[in-house]
């Protein structure tokens, strides 16, 4: 099968549908579609940083963001502390 814009668009649409379905149905299939560890390892290698250092740098920058991307998680742990 030749690679053309129609095939690429169909692949993207199909993949997005599978990812949305996985998230909606609370399954783990999205983890197979987004290989986070592999992406992180490749990025850290290209950046010349150890993975742990890259993670800490990301977390430090993310905590400065407005809105904080971790607000939902922070709120969950705050509820645990208040019980």
Automatic annotation (TrEMBL):
Name the UniProt record assigns to this protein: Uncharacterized protein
Organism from which the protein derives: marine sediment metagenome
């Amino acid at each position: 099968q030749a690679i053309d814009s129609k095939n690429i668009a169909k692949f993207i649409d199909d993949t997005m549908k599978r990812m949305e379905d996985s998230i909606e149905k609370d399954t783990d299939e999205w983890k197979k579609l987004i290989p986070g560890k592999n992406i992180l390892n490749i990025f850290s290698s290209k950046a010349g940083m150890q993975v742990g250092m890259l993670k800490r740098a990301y977390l430090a920058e993310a905590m400065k963001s407005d809105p904080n991307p971790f607000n939902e998680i922070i709120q969950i742990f705050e509820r645990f502390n208040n019980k």
